[in-house]
């Protein structure tokens, strides 16, 4: 809390009352969340649910990597119409002579391949003897080396490292704690939410419990245990509740089946207790967590900063001032959510645009309905969380700080409460 004059007896009573009120809400919430998590914890039994590994290899076939040295055109497989195929002359990482790797036509059209690229390819030479020692087809043999994917390990690790360095350099210790919180959040998803969905646990409860656990860990670890953080957590939980209710209603009213993609169709065919619509419902709730956390912690901080600048401001005026800041944040965050979803679904948007259908029909089609509902549901929960967080923050900061500020000399910021 810092040094300074001790609060008056009335201020001390007000602060204790505010602390008890926060504890009376958050402690039972934390206990209920913990109990629910224990009851919903996956057993690890997936039953008969199995999905063939697309990268599983037949006996005698190996997966290898290498560096492309040059790109050439060569005759395609026998039995087909005369045509040219793109071959990447690749130096295997394991050593040996360069081999000719047959490139996927889709890759050539969309991205292409160039010398210096690292590629992953299937080595079929042990089950299908090539016509010569280099693996070239020569028009008499099917390909012995077939492209699978690019090797992206190094650039992605470099980008992740740069991201961590930038976050820590700017936000310092708090940025480091935020990164650790992010890792723990994904651990909750991987260990609790995803296995629970596979086992057929209630998706709405899974999403709510998992989200509350993530937010409690992320907020308190990144921002510290304080009245301000507790206020942001309460606003976040409120927004989550609104989002969950809207998502559950929208799933039913909008008849969102989730079977419009190849991945969803694969899950449907698995059978068992796995529910594709439940996965979609869970995704609707979890997708807005980041933006929701952003607005609530920022709104709580805004109230504390405004209060420190003018501690005698009436509660109603403090609420109005903070809410004006919140409105600007709402506008920018709504854009963020919308553009994030639009960017992720851009190939799909291009395809749907080429259908040349009316706009309303396009937006409500099975291809886009899920993205539209996700954007609307997350945005509504976010918007309503702002005034709720502001109201809670004003009540708490008034109860914990007004008389104390009057009684003490200038000292530490009340943002550190």
Give a structural overview.
By secondary structure, the protein is an alpha+beta fold. It folds into two domains: 261 residues, no CATH class; 90 residues, EutN/Ccml (OB fold (Dihydrolipoamide Acetyltransferase, E2P)). It contains twelve helices and five strands. It has a five-stranded antiparallel β-sheet, with no helix packed on it. Strand 1 and strand 2 form a beta hairpin. The longest helix has 46 residues.
List unreliable stretches of 5+ residues: 1-5, 133-140, 402-417
Portion of residues in beta strands equals 5-15%
Helix content: 55-70%
Give the overall shape.
elongated
Strand order of the largest sheet: 3-2-1-4-5
Domain unit count: 2
How many helical stretches? Answer: 12
Radius of gyration: 28 Å
Class by helix and strand content?
Answer: alpha+beta
What do the pLDDT scores average to?
80
Please count the beta strands (DSSP E, at least 2 residues each): 5
Give the CA-CA distance, first to last residue.
Answer: 6 Å
Order of helices and strands: HEEEHEEHHHHHHHHHH
Largest sheet: 5 strands, antiparallel
What is shown here, in short?
The protein contains 12 helices and 5 strands. The chain has helices spanning 9-40, 105-110, 153-198, 203-223, 227-253, 262-268, 276-286, 289-309, 315-344, 346-354, 359-363, 369-407, and strands at 62-75, 84-92, 99-102, 118-123, 145-150.
Task: Jot down its keywords.
417 residues, alpha+beta, OB fold (Dihydrolipoamide Acetyltransferase, E2P), 2 domains, five-stranded antiparallel β-sheet, 12 helices, 61% helix, disordered C terminus
Chart the SSEs and their pairings.
Blueprint: H1 9-40, E1 62-75, E2 84-92, E3 99-102, H2 105-110, E4 118-123, E5 145-150, H3 153-198, H4 203-223, H5 227-253, H6 262-268, H7 276-286, H8 289-309, H9 315-344, H10 346-354, H11 359-363, H12 369-407
Antiparallel strand pairs: 1-2, 1-4, 2-3, 4-5
């Amino acid at each position: 809390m810092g040094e300074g004059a001790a609060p008056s007896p009335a201020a001390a009573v007000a602060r204790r009352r505010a602390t008890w009120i926060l504890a009376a809400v958050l402690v039972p919430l934390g206990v209920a969340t913990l109990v629910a998590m224990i009851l919903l914890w996956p057993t690890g039994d997936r039953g008969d649910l199995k999905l063939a590994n697309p990268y599983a290899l037949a006996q005698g076939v190996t997966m290898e990597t290498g560096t492309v040295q040059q790109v050439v055109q060569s005759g395609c497989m026998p039995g087909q119409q005369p045509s040219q195929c793109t071959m990447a002359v690749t130096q295997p990482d394991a050593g040996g002579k360069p081999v000719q790797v047959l490139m996927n036509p889709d890759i050539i059209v969309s991205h292409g391949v160039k010398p210096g690229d690292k590629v992953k390819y299937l080595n079929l030479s042990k089950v299908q003897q090539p016509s010569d020692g280099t693996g070239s087809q020569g028009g008499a043999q099917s390909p012995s080396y077939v492209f699978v994917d690019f090797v992206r390990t190094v650039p992605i690790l470099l980008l992740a490292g740069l991201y961590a360095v930038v976050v820590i350099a700017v936000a310092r210790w708090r940025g480091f704690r935020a990164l650790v919180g992010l890792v723990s959040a994904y651990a909750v998803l991987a260990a609790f939410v995803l296995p629970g969905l596979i086992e057929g646990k209630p998706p709405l409860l899974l999403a709510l419990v998992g989200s509350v656990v993530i937010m409690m860990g992320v907020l308190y670890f990144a921002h510290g245990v304080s009245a301000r953080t507790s206020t942001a957590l309460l606003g976040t939980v409120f927004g989550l509740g609104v989002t969950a209710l809207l998502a559950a209603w929208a799933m039913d009213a909008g008849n969102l089946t989730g079977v419009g993609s190849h991945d969803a169709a694969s899950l449907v065919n698995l059978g068992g207790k796995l529910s594709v619509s439940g996965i979609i419902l869970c995704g609707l709730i979890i997708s807005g967590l980041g933006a929701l956390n952003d607005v609530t912690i920022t709104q709580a901080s805004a109230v504390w900063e405004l209060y420190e600048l003018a501690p005698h401001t009436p509660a109603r005026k403090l609420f109005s001032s903070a809410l004006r800041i919140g409105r600007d944040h709402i506008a920018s965050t709504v854009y963020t959510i919308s553009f994030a979803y639009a960017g992720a679904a851009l190939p799909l948007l291009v395809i749907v645009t080429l259908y040349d259908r009316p706009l309303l029909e396009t937006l409500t089609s099975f291809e886009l309905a899920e993205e539209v509902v996700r954007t609307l549901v997350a945005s509504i929960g976010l918007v309503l969380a702002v005034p709720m967080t502001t109201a809670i923050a004003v009540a708490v900061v008034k109860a914990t700080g007004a008389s104390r500020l009057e009684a003490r000399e200038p000292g530490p910021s009340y943002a550190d409460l």
